[in-house]
């Protein structure tokens, strides 16, 4: 393809996926807003304690969906239809197994998990209800992620976007209905979130009923080799989501010691806004994945390089715009979630917003470069980047910087970590590009 055609394809896939991912990230952001209005700082703290488990669930679904979708796209571009169907079947089997573990864990062990996450007498009941219902809806969350990824790689990004947006808008509407007119409290918030992927799946269902899809379940052996390939390609997506949950847990524990539940509530504002910002970068990354994988499978190295360049330029421009907006309107953003007009919560959140989001451009670079590596069947550097930014750097940095500078140290952890990892990612990217040129 010509570069201009590649740009049109890039713009189509990325724009649709960014919109869809922003909508998807509003699952939890809508809960944050309505919970803050209905239940105050205690409800906000309870929500933030339970969110890490949602990250685990979402990450597991993305691992299987992105890993399977990448393999499917490559096989499809090479004309290997039978192998492509085997990938989908094995991905579906893996999804069922992992979803069952989450489901039964939520059914029998939600209380101990909530205690482990740091719930106290004020937040325990709300956090347990939220966590249990989220885990019982795991099969729907994971099936939704699987289908979204495969539909996108099947050449229907507009349907994937429509499903994500419809699911998220329904969540916002149901949040309001369940929490205010019906007065269902935290259960209403989590029920709305759990129904969102069900609605998203319903939006995609005509695609399968009319048999427009090119991927199908088939009779084949469930092969560990295929499982390994799916997990390896999708592992960076899992690490990114799981590490987000672990980082929230660590930050919650540190902040509880520094500022108590008010500090955790303030961090909840920042963490949930961060979900939306990261969703923009994830949307770019997921948008370029089908394009890069199909071009890589067809041996078009020039097109692959062009798409990567477009993605990095788009990310840089959006990062500058996002940070300027957050820096300028930090007081107004914090006030949206400060229903009790707490001066302390407002002060902590405003300071945190201005420091934390300095890391935007570095995070965007790391997410896109990681996806480039997995999309070209070279997952090891993506694993390195994901592990560094998810565990190896950010957790020690959180303890060290918070000990040195208190809350300012906590907020500085994200930009410092992402900047250090971006240097490593840049070196790995240059080496890869030199070898492939």
Order of helices and strands: HHHHHHHHHHHHH
How much helical structure, as a percent, in the residues? Answer: over 70%
Please provide the count of β strands. Answer: 0
Query: How would you characterize the largest beta sheet?
Result: none
Distance between the ends: 18 Å
Low-confidence stretches: none
Describe the structure.
The protein has 437 residues and is mainly α. The protein contains 13 helices and no strands. Helix 1 crosses helix 4, helix 1 crosses helix 5 and helix 7 crosses helix 11. The longest helix is centred in the first third of the chain and has 75 residues. It is globular, with a radius of gyration of 21 Å. It starts with a helix and ends with a helix. The mean pLDDT is 87.
Characteristics:
437 residues, mainly alpha, 88% helix
What is the compact description of this entry?
The protein has helices at 3-77, 81-116, 124-136, 138-153, 157-179, 185-209, 224-297, 301-328, 330-336, 343-356, 360-375, 379-392, 394-436. The protein has 437 residues and is an all-alpha fold.
What is the topology?
Elements: H1 3-77, H2 81-116, H3 124-136, H4 138-153, H5 157-179, H6 185-209, H7 224-297, H8 301-328, H9 330-336, H10 343-356, H11 360-375, H12 379-392, H13 394-436
């Amino acid at each position: 393809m010509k570069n201009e055609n590649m740009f049109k394809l890039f713009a189509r896939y990325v724009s649709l996926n960014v919109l869809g991912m922003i909508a998807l990230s509003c699952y939890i952001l809508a809960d944050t807003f309505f919970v803050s209005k209905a239940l105050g700082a205690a409800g906000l703290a309870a929500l933030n304690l339970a969110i890490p488990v949602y990250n685990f669930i979402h990450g597991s679904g993305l691992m299987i969906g992105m890993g399977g979708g990448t393999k499917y796209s490559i096989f499809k571009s090479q004309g290997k239809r039978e192998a492509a169907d085997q990938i989908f079947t094995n991905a579906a089997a893996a999804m069922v197994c992992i979803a069952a573990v989450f489901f039964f864990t939520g059914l029998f062990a939600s209380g101990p998990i909530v205690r482990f996450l740091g719930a106290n007498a004020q937040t325990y009941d709300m956090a347990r209800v939220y966590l249990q219902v989220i885990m019982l809806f795991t099969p729907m969350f994971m099936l939704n992620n699987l289908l979204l990824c495969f539909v996108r790689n099947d050449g229907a990004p507009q349907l994937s976007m429509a499903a994500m947006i419809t699911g998220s808008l329904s969540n916002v509407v149901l949040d309001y209905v369940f929490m205010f007119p019906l007065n269902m409290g935290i259960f209403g918030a989590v029920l709305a979130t759990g129904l969102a992927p069900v609605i998203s799946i319903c939006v995609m269902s005509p695609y399968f009923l009319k048999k427009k899809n090119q991927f199908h379940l088939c009779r084949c052996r469930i092969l560990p080799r295929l499982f390994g390939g799916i997990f390896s390609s999708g592992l960076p997506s899992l690490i990114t989501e799981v590490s987000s949950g672990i980082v929230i847990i660590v930050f919650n524990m540190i902040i509880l010691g520094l500022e108590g539940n008010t500090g955790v509530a303030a961090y909840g504002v920042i963490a949930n806004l961060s979900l939306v910002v990261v969703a923009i970068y994830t949307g770019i990354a997921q948008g370029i994945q089908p394009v890069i994988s199909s071009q890589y499978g067809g041996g078009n190295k020039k097109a692959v390089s062009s798409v990567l360049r477009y993605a990095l330029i788009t990310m840089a421009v959006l990062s500058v715009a996002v940070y300027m907006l957050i820096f300028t309107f930090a007081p107004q953003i914090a006030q949206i979630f400060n229903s009790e007009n707490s001066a302390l919560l407002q002060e902590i959140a405003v300071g945190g917003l201005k420091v934390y989001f300095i890391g935007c451009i570095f995070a965007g670079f790391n997410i896109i470069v990681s996806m480039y590596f997995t999309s070209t069947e070279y997952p090891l550097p993506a694993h390195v980047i994901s592990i560094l930014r998810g565990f190896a750097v950010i957790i020690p940095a959180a303890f060290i910087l918070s000990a040195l500078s208190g809350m300012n140290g906590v907020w500085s952890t994200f930009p410092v970590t992402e900047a250090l990892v971006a240097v490593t990612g840049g070196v790995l990217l240059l080496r890869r590009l030199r070898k492939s040129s």
